[in-house]
Structure formats: C-alpha cells, structure tokens
Amino acid sequence: MDYHFLLSKQIKKLLPEHYLEDDTIIRFLNSVNSSFNNFDKAQKLADHAFNVSEREYQQVTTYLSEQNEIKQRSISQLKEAIKSLDPDSELKIYDSDDDLIHIISFLQERIEKAKELEVELIQSKDIAEKAAMAKSQFLSVMSHEIRTPMNAVIGFTHLLIHQDPKPEQMEFLNFLKFSAENLLVLINDILDFNKIEAGKIEFETVDFSVKDLISNIRLALLQKANEKNIKIKLMLDQDLPNAVLGDPVRLGQILTNLISNAVKFTPSGKVTITATLSRGDKEYSTIDFEVADTGIGIQPDKLDYIFDSFSQASSDTTRKFGGSGLGLTITKRLLQLLGSEFGKGSVFTFSLTFKNSSKHINNGISNDEFYSLQSLKGTKLLIAEDNQINVILAKEFMKQWDVECDVAENGEIALMLVKTNNYDMVLMDLQMPEMDGYQTTTAIRNLPGNKYRDLPIIALTASAMLDIQDKAFTVGMNDYVSKPFNPNELHRKIAAYASKN
Fold this sequence. Notes:
alpha/beta, Heat Shock Protein 90, 14 helices
C-alpha cells in the first residue's frame, strides 16, 4: 500500500519490517495515513479559500473606494448647485464632503419654504383672478351705465339734425354729435382693451369691400381733417379684389385708429392712405396697408413706447391732442391676433391676408343684402325697455319708419304682451326689473307653440362685453343691437326680420 510520503519516511526510519505483517499495526498505519491525506486536502482548501477571499477583498475595497469618490464628487456638486440656486441663503454645510445630514436638513427646510411660497402664489393667483373678474364686472356695469345715456344723447341728436334745425343750431348739434361720438370711442377703447387682455376678442367672417371700407373711413374723418385744412388722399390699387371675407369692424377699427392719429398729429399737409395687392390668387389676397402723414413725427426712442398701454410719446400729448393712450396698443394687439406684420417709423404699415369672396359688392351694398330706410309699415313689434328716455327715443324712430309698437317696462309685462298679441319681433333690453331680458326670453321660448319658438328676439344691450352677447344667444335670442345703436343698423335688422315673417 502506498502511504503518505511523510508517513512512509517515518515507517522506513523507525518501524522494523516484521511489524508490517501485524494486522493491528497495518490498521493503525492506514488510519494515520488517512489523517495525513485529510490534512493535505484541508490545507489545500484553506489555501484556496484564502486566495479567493483576498481577491474578493481587493475587489470590494476597490469598488468601495470608487463609490466613495463618486459620493464625494456628488456631494460637492450638490453643494455647488444648492449655493448657485440660492446664493443669499445661509447654507450650514461644513467642509467635509460627507456632511449629508446637513444637506438633507437644508433641503428639507427649502422644500418647506417652497411649499409655503406655493401656497402664497396660489392665494395671490386667486386674488388676482378675483380682481380681474371684479374689473371685468365693473367694466360691464360701467359700459351699461355710460352707454345707456349715450344712446339718448346720440339718438336725439341724430333726430334733431334731421328735423331741419336753424343753421346756428345745426352747427351746435354737429359739435354735440362729434363730442358724443368721441366719448363713445374712448369708452369702446377701454372695453376693447379689456376684452383683448382677457383673451375674449372674437372675429367675424363676413363679405365686405376693402375699397368701400377705406373710403367710408376717409369720409368719416374728412370733417375733422377739413377743419385743420388737411388733405386725406387715397391710393387704392385697381387690382384689389371686389370683396373679401373677414372682419370689417376690426379692420375699420385699426385703420380708424391709425388715420385719426395721423390727422390728430398733423398740423398741416396731408395724410395718405394706401392699399396695395401684394399677392393674390383665386382663393386668397394679401393686401399691404399704409398710413403716412406729414405731421410732427415720432422720436426714434419713442417708437416702441407708443405701443404700450396708456402711453403716449409725450406727457402733454393727452392735454394737447386728447385720447386714451390705448389706440395704438389695441391696433398692435389686433394685428398680432390677425397675423400681420407691423412697420416702424412715422409711416405705419401692415399686411393682412383675406380669403376672396364670391359675392359682388357695389358701393358698399352686397347684391343680396340691399336695403334702404324705406317705410316699414305693417310691422308690429314689442319694445321691452325700462329706461323711459330710451323708450321715447325708440318710439320716435319707429314713428319715422311707420312701425307699430307696444312698450313693456319689465320682463313680466313683456311676457304677458307676447302671449296676448301677434308681434313680428321683440326688441329686448337685457337689464330690466322683475324679469331681465334673459329670463323673459327663456320664458317666451318655453311657451307652447311654434310661433313663440320662432319669434325673432333682438337684444338691446348697453354692454359691449362678449360674454353678455354670448349669453344672449345661449338663451335663445336671434340677434343683438348695441347701445348707443346706429339707426341704420337697427332699421336694417328690423327690416330683415320683418321680411322673414
């Protein structure tokens, strides 16, 4: 038998050979041999385990070292980031890069302050929204309260002018009409500015002639220009389309602001209005507009300033020339909403693209919308209005147009009269006692029978706020006329709804 090499050496050296024949000795030697072999195996395992542990230990140590470096760099970067975000804060972090406890405490403190600030911002936002709503409501009320008496002032002035007054009276009446209309322009500027700020501006899409629109604006401003001996010249491209689709009221507002400003700030000379077709095809037309004057001009450093709200080039401009300081602001914002390009300098230019209209318009009258201030005899309507002065004014116009009319001073009376009479339409004031115009319209629409569902109801509103007009349509009104109303517009709408009936 082969024994472990150490055991073999000891047997040869110390054990006589005849002992190797004894079974007891042999069993003993085998047992010792197994112990030697087991010891060798255990030693090899121990050596292997030690080597493996050493390698793993080195790997773990290297990994921990790398992670510690990453942590130190991260902490340093975190410190720098915190300090850059809030350089004025007292950051209680020591120089040791592992001071995570102080960093976490600091961040928790900042988070709490951020939450407090968020609460304050939400409260401030609520306050601002309530203030904006209060402003909007105030403007709506102010609009109604100012425009209601203005309706009487302008309306009765219009009636007096058409009753052959004496020459000296005609002069005074024209002054009165001009001053009242100027006051109305200021009111409308403030209301329009509020609507644009609130994002509630809306644009119509109707057929109109650009040539006729510009010509009419020129005629409207000609008297003021003649008083200053200023010429207003038109240069209209012959290639301009006969009719386009767009919002003539807003384009008219833009041009009126620019042209009236040109007349206002021109002591002598002329104002030139140019409209040129720059691009056009079968579907669209792009028109370049220009308003130039020979007036006082604008200082270069004031070019941007004059478009700011309530701002004018000089502090004494309002005293010398009048105005609210909103005209150019509204003009600029309307043009931004319409997608135009604005020019600079004393010459104001802008470009707008319109869709071409399929209609033909002749001298401002569409071929399918012709009307005149003819007699409306045979028309019977109800005027629901609580303001007695406005009732007198409306009845006077109805008398001139041969319109038969009844008057209801509140919504309850209006509802009763609608039930007991056959009217061609109702002119419905929105703000009345007992039942307002909205409630009365809803009640009429709920009456049984098609005639109540189809009865034309035209809102008479002294408010120019869009939400008022939207609400009027929502409750079932067919149309609206703003006070102070234009007699021609009111006549046209009465004639249109009377013809349908």
